[in-house]
Amino acid sequence: MTPRDWYPPIEPYDSGMLAAGDGDEIFWETCGNPTGKPALFLHGGPGGGVLPDNRRFFDPAAYRIVLFDQRNCGRSTPFAGDPAVSLERNTTPQLVDDIERLRGHLGVERWLVFGGSWGSTLALAYAQAHPDRVSELVLRGVWLVRPSDEAWTFTPEGAARLFPAEWEAFVAPIPAGEQDDLVAAYGRRLTDPDPAVHVPAARAWMGWELTANTLLPVPPPDLGDAQTVAFAHILHHYIAGGGFLPEQGLLAGVDRIRHVPAVVVNGRYDMKTPPDQAWDLHRAWPEAELHLVEDAGHGGSEPGIRRLLVEATDRFRTSP
């Protein structure tokens, strides 16, 4: 394997559905070495679900790789592709509890926790809640979900100035009288029971969400209507809820994880989670190793980012 490659594709050796209470079930899978060092991959979104390439950040000979679809997305049920599905029990504290439930179900004592974008948010929240269960953290595209971070995404003074055509397409479905609060305006449409309303709204929302995911343009993923609705429904739910994080935010909890070895990787030209968030995390937590990749945006599959993430998991293969 060259330094810029990730590991070859692999298939799970085990999978299942974990009862999470009140009729919710979480899909999980394990790959790699059944007796290897446990590593947990947390997908982005929220609402994105696990992708096959997510398994490739880890040496399959060294790691017992655990992945799961967070509540109401991917193969977990009930699926939020139906806007009638309640997301009341889909919050960050509940996802943290799901991780702990899965850890116990799989008989894991401690594990490396890896998360990108929303996965970095959830990884930090989980580690701060259960620091004794985390051996290392590998974070990519740090998202702190502060009001200032959301202003970058949802006001004309932020990313809209760099992507004017895409911003225009995002605001076009919303009447001028509702554009002072785009998140609320989209929320009304994404939860409308009429597919003629919620499907176009989800497409427009996800069109803006997937804008500039990488430094160099790549074709957007081919999402069906149900997956698009689920992704938009869950992502909007978390943004409207401020990420369901403690009022003081994630930086205030750094002291609980200061002892945990950590690698943080962010693209210099990340338009989704600009590097000031990773920098602010590093300032609060200088013990965490920060890498700003000069030729990358937000995507975890971009070569410079991918290489550093694999280097981090390789380095942690033999640590306690």
Automatic annotation (TrEMBL):
EC number: 3.4.11.5
Catalytic residues identified in the record: 117 (nucleophile), 270, 298 (proton donor)
Signal sequence residues: none
Organism in which the protein naturally occurs: Nonomuraea terrae
UniProt entry tagged with the keyword Cytoplasm: yes
A cellular-component GO term for this protein: cytoplasm
Catalysis: reaction(s): Release of N-terminal proline from a peptide
Limits of the AB hydrolase-1 domain: 40-299
Principal location listed in the UniProt entry: cytoplasm
Protein name (record): Proline iminopeptidase
Family: Belongs to the peptidase S33 family.
Enzyme superclass (EC): hydrolase
Alphabetized Pfam families for the sequence: Abhydrolase_1 (PF00561)
Compartment annotation: Cytoplasm
GO biological process: proteolysis
Keywords: Aminopeptidase, Cytoplasm, Hydrolase, Protease
